[in-house]
Design goal:
Length: 355
């Protein structure tokens, strides 16, 4: 879908992309990086809107330097910033964009109605967009990117400014763009956590350089840590505490911080490198007369991969600040907008949506 070879973009005072070599296949790919990492610059080059300083790039096999027009016919683009005219309705705007992409009038109207329904904006489609919420505006921007039935879409920070519910809905929509229509997606975010569950593949850039490009499952390999959740009972009103005590009495060490997972304190974590531990835990739970809600191997979260790297580079403090702000599924700052670009190169913020 996308290939770059030693792609660089230098502005007078900053190198936005630094010799980036990438090969991105079909599916949903996340391009993640802190603010200023070079994500938007990359998308503009891939659309043929901004020339690279060095290196080459192709999209759908077309050279960005010479075939920008053809690329834009086949690719949809959802820009990051608010760019919707306030005094026209979603229908008028998306029909206009469909016509700009070459659809005849009747097809443009039909596709607009279908696409707006798909993004969940059917009822409000005749109202002027100036009165729309941020979530509705993001949906219109997504609809205009999809209306001409592209093979690939570039979505630049589509969850920006959304509350947790809006963010989850947008992520589900993005996933369905691929599963329902077979359209491949390149989606940017400064939040690792949200890409973890949406994307098949994640590319991480930092200061214009490639940090890592891997399938999501490679990022999130299973660990030997077992997470166990049990019910309470009349005999043991604190079932979790009773299980910890019983396992401890039988010589099994448990961690009691919940590992930062949601519901921490209700989850017992223990090392299960040996498979016999599974039976042992099950028998202990049964002996206590508790219900076993779940017993599962923990997976790494993408953010942990980067946390380890950062601690090695003495940037733990910086990272912990992100963690503190990364409440479950919530934006990192009250506005939901990215924080100002930093000069130290932190890995992308961890978002916390999965934690
Ligand atoms: N037209 C420009 N002129 C000069 N510098 C630019 C220009 N466009 C981008 N930059 C700089 O290039 C770097 C990368 O910017 P870019 O917008 O690609 O980052 P980003 O990862 O998309 O971040 P954000 O999410 O904040 O937009 C930044 O330092 C930015 O200030």
């Amino acid at each position: 879908m996308i290939a770059t070879e030693s792609l660089s973009k230098r502005f007078p005072k900053v190198t936005a992309l630094d010799r980036l070599t990438l090969d991105i296949g079909a599916g949903v790919t996340g391009l993640v990086g802190a603010n200023g990492a070079g994500k938007s610059t990359m998308i503009k080059i891939l659309l043929g809107l901004s020339p690279a300083t060095e290196g080459t790039a192709s999209v759908l096999g077309l050279d960005v330097a010479t075939s920008g027009g053809q690329i834009r016919e086949r690719v949809g683009y959802m820009p990051e910033h608010d760019c919707l005219p306030p005094d026209v309705s979603a229908t008028e705007f998306v029909v206009h964009m469909a016509r700009m992409s070459g659809l005849p009038p009747a097809a443009a109207r039909e596709r607009t109605a279908d696409t707006l329904r798909h993004v969940g904006l059917y009822e409000e489609r005749y109202r002027p967009m100036g009165g729309y919420s941020t979530g509705m505006k993001q949906r219109v921007k997504l609809a205009q990117a999809l209306v001409h039935d592209p093979q690939l879409v570039f979505l630049d920070e589509p969850t920006n400014g959304l509350d947790p519910v809006g963010r989850d809905e947008m992520l589900d929509l993005i996933r369905r763009v691929h599963t329902d229509f077979g359209i491949s997606v390149l989606v940017t975010s400064h939040l690792l956590g949200e890409l973890e569950r949406t994307c098949d593949h994640v590319v991480v850039i930092d200061g214009g350089k490639l940090l890592r490009s891997s399938s999501t499952t490679d990022f999130t390999q299973t660990t030997t840590t077992l997470a166990v959740e049990v019910t309470d009972s009349d005999e043991h009103p604190d079932g979790t505490g009773a299980l910890r005590a019983a396992l401890g009495a039988r010589g099994v060490t448990t961690q009691d911080d919940g590992g930062g997972l949601p519901g921490a304190g209700h989850i017992v974590l223990l090392d299960a490198a040996d498979e016999a531990v599974y039976d042992f835990v099950r028998d202990t739970v049964a002996d206590l007369g508790l219900g076993l809600v779940r017993m599962e191997q923990r997976r790494h979260h993408i953010a942990e991969v980067f946390r380890t790297g950062h601690e090695q580079h003495g940037q733990r403090e910086n990272h912990e600040q992100h963690e503190q702000h990364g409440h479950h599924g919530q934006p990192e700052n009250p506005s939901g907008r990215p924080a100002a670009p930093t000069t130290t190169p932190p890995a992308p913020q961890t978002g916390g949506a999965q934690r």
